Amino acid sequence: MASEGKESKPDSQPAATQFTCKDLAASATHQPTDKKLFENLSGAGKVIGVLTSGGDAQGMNAAVRAVVRMGIYVGAKMYFVYEGYQGMVDGGNNIVEVTWECVSSILQVGGTVIGSARCQAFRTREGRLQAAYNLIQKGITNLCVIGGDGSLTGANLFREEWSGLLEELAKAGKIEKEAVKKYAYLNIVGMVGSIDNDFCGTDMTIGTDSALHRIIEVVDAIMTTAQSHQRTFVLEVMGRHCGYLALVSALACGADWVFIPEYPPEEGWEKLLCTKLLENRANKKRLNIIIVAEGAIDIHNKPITSEKVKDLVVKQLGYDTRVTILGHVQRGGTPSAFDRILASRMGVDAVLALLEATADTPACVVSLSGNQSVRLPLMECVHMTQEVQKAMDNCQFAEAVKLRGRSFENNLNTYKLLSQKKPDSELPKSNFNVAIMNVGAPAAGMNAAVRSAVRMGISEGHKMFAVNNGFEGFSKGQIKEITWGGVGGWTGQGGSILGTKRTLPAKYLETIAEQMRIHNINALLVIGGFEGYQGCIQLAEARPQHQEFCIPICIVPTTISNNIPGTDITLGSDTGLNAIMETCDRIKQSASGTKRRVFIIETMGGYCGYLASMGGLAAGADVAYIFEEEFDIRELQANVEHLTEKMKTSIQRGLVLRNENCNENYTTDFIYQLYSEEGKGIFDCRKNVLGHMQQGGAPSPFDRNFGTKISAKAVLWLSEKLKESYRKVVGKVFANTDDSVCLLGMRTRKLIFQPVTELKSETDFEHRIPKEQWWLKLRPLMKILAKYKISYDVSDSDNQS
């Protein structure tokens, strides 16, 4: 979840007491600008080098691909710098001009194909002098650096010294004096590639989401064997100076305990840990998961290692305990859909930043703020990142957590609330009954959201009731109380354990109202899709006839289609997107042997083209047909001709995505037959309908985490509304205002409660989609990276510092 932040004046230097890490991105306010199209920006005469440095991270190749293709697209000359700064110092064959085809087939590859190396020589002025000489030989005066804070700091120093280095080279007779004037300044743009998510100014760094995928895959596998033998597993994850991976993976798998450097356990933690493990076993929990960040420390700044934790559990409790150190597994594997899209967006914006840069432009870093790409002063972000480490070194741990940003703080607070139940004697008594239900098609993350809601509700003192099988089950009285332990282990399970149906409540209003009276339901949480949203509107509209519906109602939007108004992203859509991307990767791989083959792939989404568009961007598709953007036979013909030209290059395959309801006449079969006929003798075609596999599978780390946090926030809102609407005189809850039936959605960087009655005007009910959708502006990226000539609005890509 994106953090919420404070505003800062342009060009002001934030102090540690004013800003948190993620607040830097929040301060990147979007100034109103005239619409600006990138085709007005020419790269002619520009020479751009791209390098990866420091530790590798999944998604770096996607960033490299985007930088190279965008650079070539605008007419710039592009160079790889192999082996990071070491290659820059060594020169020769380490600095090579590249073509469009050079970055084909690297989107889905982990690590970095251009190599990364630690370089002591670049730390010296002599090394940087040699690097400057090598760049001048190729005419490179623009660098895109993908790495961590150390790599970006080195790049900024290089930029600051550039003119002095050139003068020194001229004095030594290594370059002509004219070259000093011609190549007078060096422009630097950074992208943060780091699995630790430890850099200030961006909500997520390239590689973090993929690393979480690797961790959760291992945790899910370990949980099955641990359950079989009643074992305790201690998992050590990366994060030498940042506990983000450990904290989010603990939240995503419901770990019993987590050790992170920003929040050391209190004095006497050994006894508290053992007590908690004992209680869990007493409650018939067959396994224990403890997650340790490699940089975990105690309050005295002394290390807490996975072996130390294991020895404690074995010695004090005698449990069968095993240690698993994930190590470099976390850096490996294919990038997730999120990382591919993030890296592609950042790569394109990095080139735009270099095109716009002047001699006076400071080094900037391309960052993610909510769903916007922004640029921030590089060194400002680096200084803030260093402030966090200083706070930890000085044992100012509360300050360190605060500096990490609100998102990190919210993760930590949510984990603390949900991982340990307070004794019944310490729980407040609200005397309110809260019902939870799933409505609509199943989506990954539903169970994580239910678990979070149940546990948060119990912590608030409510009695929690689970409704099985949606509104239909509600009408039949399929309602039962659900306990803290009753939702144990739900986080990682796909589908809907409660059961869900698409049925709307309109024809069951009488019986649902009766069941609400019988069970004295005082608040309702609906975790569901478009039907859930419509159902809540129907309940609100039926209030005059049924006072039982005059209670606080909240909907958590949950569907793979991402087609609900009031939110930029719905729970479940990330998992669906990854399912599409993984299938496309396999399909593309199958085409690598046969050559000259085009695949037509149909995705779900109803009338919403989110899955097809974002899936196309993540998988490197040539085109994606969606309902929101009309197309005709001429465009289909142009796409066939484009693929025909592509087959003349070394990239002899094509990938076409089609949203299931994009056009009633241009069906998947029609497009397949058209492509087959028009491409006869040049390429052959295959079609795939992905179907319900997009709804299945274990939830992604993002959906587990998002579901956990958004549901917890929804229950806290219901608690507040229950207190506001309780009428002491009659001893009952009465909520009849518009703002008592709300949808909780993610808007840019914030979770916002919006009355469903207000959202009706933003909804196209006929096609079950929002009237405006933010992701449509990203569609040109896919075509640009597939070499189509297209207009792209870059108004949001201005320097936002």
Query: Can you give the helix content as a percent range?
Result: 25-40%
Distance between the termini: 22 Å
Oligomeric state as shown: single chain
User: What is the name of the CATH class of the largest domain?
Assistant: Alpha Beta
Which parts are unreliable, with pLDDT below 50 for 5 consecutive residues or more? 1-35, 797-801
How much strand content do the residues show? 15-25%
In the CATH classification, which architecture of the largest domain applies?
3-Layer(aba) Sandwich
Rg from alpha-carbon coordinates:
27 Å
- Helical element count? 25
Globally, the shape reads globular
The pLDDT mean sits at: 90
- Please report the total strand number as a whole number: 27
How many structural units, i.e. domains? Answer: 4
Structural class: alpha/beta
CATH topology of the largest domain: Rossmann fold
Biggest sheet statistics? 8 strands, mixed
GO molecular function, one term: identical protein binding
Binding site for beta-D-fructose 2,6-bisphosphate: 502, 559-563, 597, 604-606, 660, 686, 692-695, 768
Pathway: Carbohydrate degradation; glycolysis; D-glyceraldehyde 3-phosphate and glycerone phosphate from D-glucose: step 3/4
Region (N-terminal catalytic PFK domain 1): 1-420
